Give the backbone structure.
Amino acid sequence: MTPLRAGVIGVGHLGQHHTRLYASLPGARLVGVVDQSAERARMIAERHGANVFGSLEELLPQVDVVSVAVPTSSHYPVAKACLQAGKHVLVEKPIAVTAGEASELVQLAAQRRCRLQVGHSERFNPIMQVMRPHIGRPVFIECHRLSTFSDRGTDVDVILDLMIHDLDMVLSFNPGEAEEVQAAGVPVLSSTIDIANARIQFTSGCVANLTASRVSTNKMRRLRLFQRDNYLSIDFHTRQGMICRREAGTGVRPSIVIEQLRGSEEEPLKLQIESFLTAVATGHRPVVSGEDGAAALNLAHRVLDAIEQFVRRNQDAPSQSTSTSP
C-alpha cells in the first residue's frame, strides 16, 4: 500500500508529536509542516526531514492527509479549508469552538467524502483498550481530570480544554441522551473557567459526575465506573485498572474478587494516528468520528450553559448579612 502523504498544521506542543509520528509510521510519508512561527516550523521540519510551507494554500496540494494542531480557536477555519480542498483531516480536540462550527465541518466532510477524525486520544489509551470489553451498562460514572496550570490551552475554558476528554469517553459508553445537566465552575488564574464540576443524567438512568481542573497541585486522570455486579477503576495516567466483581459465596455475604489490569506502554497518539491512516486507506468510519467530536462538544456546551445558569442564580440571590440589635 502506497504511504499517504501527510502534513501537519501547527507544530507546537502537540503538533511536533504528530510530525514525529508521521515521519516514523510506514503508512505515511511526512511531506511538510506549516506554523505561524517560521523559525519553529523550520526547526521541527529539519528534525524529521520534512519541508516547510509558507501557507496552508501551499501545503494542501502536496498532501493527502493533515493533522490540525493549531490553537482551539482556529480549529474551525483551518479544518474547513482542508476539507474544502478534499483532504482527510485529523483535528485535535475539541473539534471546534461552537456547535454550529462542528456541524458544518461534519457536513462538509460528508460532502467531500473525506475522513474527519477528532483527537480524543484517551480513547486510544492502552488501559482503555484493556478495560473496555468489561464495560456494559454503567449506572454511575465518576471522572476526575486535574492538571497544574499552564498558559497553553487557556484560549478556551477548562470544559473544552480538559473535561471534553471525559465527556467523549462517557458518551462512548452509549448512555443515551443527556436528560439533565447541572454544573458549577469558576475562573481562578485565567479569564475563563479553570475548575468545574458537572452532574449529567442520561435516559438510560446512568449518572455521570465529572470534575475538571487546570489549577490543581497534582495531576489526576481517573475514571470510576459502577455496574450492577462490578466496579471498575481506570487510571489513564498510570495505565492501571482494577475490576471488583461480586461473586455469590456460601456464606451470608457475597465475596468480592479483585482483578488488577495494566495497559501496554504504547503511545496513545501513535495508536490514534495509525487508526486515522487506516480509516483513510480503507474508507471506514474513524474510531472517533466528526460526529463523535460534535456530540462531545454539544454536551460540553450544555455544561457551559448550566454553569452560566448557576452563576446567574448566585448573582440574583439576595445577599445575607447578619446584624446585632442593641
